[in-house]
Amino acid sequence: MSRSESDLEACSREPIHIPGAIQPHGALVVLRPADMAVVHASRNALEFFGEEVAIGRPIGGRLAPLVAAIREWYASSAPVFQSNSVEGDLQFTAHRSGHSIILEAERADTRPLEGLFSRLRGFVEILSTRPDPNGSLQAAADFIRELTGFDRVLVYRFDPDWNGHVVAEAGNGNLPSYLDLRFPAADIPAQARALYASNRVRIIPDAYYEPIAIEPANDPETGEPVDLSQAQLRSVSPVHIEYMRNMGTAASMSVSVMVDGRLWGLVSCHSAKAHTVAGTIRDACDFIVQSLAMRIAAQVHGEDAANRVELSRISARLLASMAAASSWSEGLVQAPEDLLAQVGASGAAIITEDNYAAVGAVPAERNVRAILEWLKTKEDQDIVSTNSLAAEFPQGEAFASEASGIIAIRISELYASWLIWFRPEAVRTVQWGGNPHKIVREEGRIHPRKSFDAWREQVSLQAVPWTEAQLSAARDLRGAIVGIVLRKAEELAELSS
Ligand SMILES: CCC1=C(C)C2=CC3=N/C(=C\c4[nH]c(/C=C5\NC(=O)C(C)=C5CC)c(C)c4CCC(=O)O)C(CCC(=O)O)=C3CCN2C1=O
For ligand 1, is residue 448 a contact (CB within 6 Å)? Predict the structure, then answer.
């Protein structure tokens, strides 16, 4: 592993869930459910809770009226407790963290909320009328920018390698456009993505804040620090704060787009100056984004269903062709269009020790046999796939124009026989937000890059990636072929007995 890779590896191990501090736009206490005694408190508790919060003693003062309601919530199955202070100036939220209760207070949004719900209803109606998913993405970015007043709202989609792509944007011109730019996976490391899959909405009102310490740092009984994974006020990793400053964004809010339980992307809001939105507006943004996520899921499910129907027709024709031919390989070669359509390939070759057949755009036979020698090193795999053969088999660079992507399925253990599908190289130019390969090392650690200007990279020796559905279709056809081979072997065995 190179030094840069190990640096980024270290970055993805930063324990961002236990920073030991919060952001100053609220206050936090950790309570023992049995007696509502305070176990930890942020140092600014007095400012928000109105009186000294004494460690080891039950909450009182402005929090006393909450005790009964918090106890009732804690005994229920509700994930989160929300309430306003009697005076209406504070919004309280609580959640369970291990055996404790984390209670947070922020200044409440005292502006009237009427009109918000009719605006939300209006957005959902727009969403349901937008035929194309991109129109829905843009509608969500426009609506959230109007609702929150951030300078720029991005819809940021992850690709299979967790690189991000800005696929929609709404802005007022105060910040540069990032539309269509891509950002490397390291910009949002794995532990952050995991956290954002459960804690969907996060706000950083001012990237120049001073963290407020939580005291005592560790639980007197367990010695453990407070786990702020689900907290609203969690202080943010210094490296990301630096990233925001480098990007010229003093405030940000991110809302996770969860599609079928997986982090599809983020709706990411930025302002050049400090900016905040109250909890009620953040909740409304979460509602908007999850409504968008359902629209995306419906689109994906619809496409999957249509693909499955078409694939079942193709597979049925291939099975019929194999059944009617003298061998499975002859049956496949006699249905070339279906053989390629099974996985969306441009060429295919069936190769055994003494036989070779090919359809569509394939490398020269000697090059296919060179791939076969490489496949023999994959002893434990019945299916081998890549969209960049040259990256794993350098000799492949010589015929990347026909074979940058391959799916190879092993047909027989006994003889080296394989069915290999091919995809050609798809040379493309990618626009990154800054040079994604630039790792800034200072004071013994890496820092975020300072420039996010469009940085063009020509990507070669890669094919269009195979989808999970195409790999599954390859596995299904392998199962059918192996079944035919086994039945043929049994028939021969019976004849010879
Ligand atoms: C323009 C497109 C775009 C990008 C690329 C982006 C990045 C981004 N990074 C985020 C978080 C983190 N990045 C990093 C780490 C890095 N960022 C870097 O640029 C590098 C090199 C690292 C590893 C050291 C870490 C530790 C975190 C966790 C912060 C926390 O929640 O405590 C976060 C999440 C911040 C949040 O939601 O609170 C984002 C979202 C903001 N955002 C964008 O709008």
Answer: yes
